[in-house]
Amino acid sequence: MSTKTREERIELLQGTLDLLILRTLILGPMHGHAIAKAIEFRSDDVLQVEQGSLYPALHRLIKRKWIAFQEGTSENNRRAKFYVLTSKGRRQLELETSKWDKLSAAIGRILRPAEQESK
Length: 119
Known about the structure:
By secondary structure, the protein is α+β, with helices and mostly antiparallel strands. 55% of the residues lie in helices and 13% in strands. A hairpin with a 5-residue loop joins strand 2 (67-73) and strand 3 (79-85). The longest helix has 25 residues, at 87-111.
């Protein structure tokens, strides 16, 4: 159960979700539900990933060859696809993380100009 109210949750932009999926899969193979739960857990339940966003993102990442999948059995004995990060995906994760760092720093400079001037 989430401790965050709906108002405290933040919707993700498409590219941001892709980045978070890539980063989550660096931990190892996971099925879709586990990916969503890992993102929610690591964000302290601020970010909620809906199935309607997750699975199109996974298909998009497969098409780009940034992730692949293997058939397997989930912890509750159901057939599942386990998604894995490819070597191309690892490289893309590094690139996207660098872009995110630059973007967030630029936004920070705009949102908090006084803090930036004192540095």
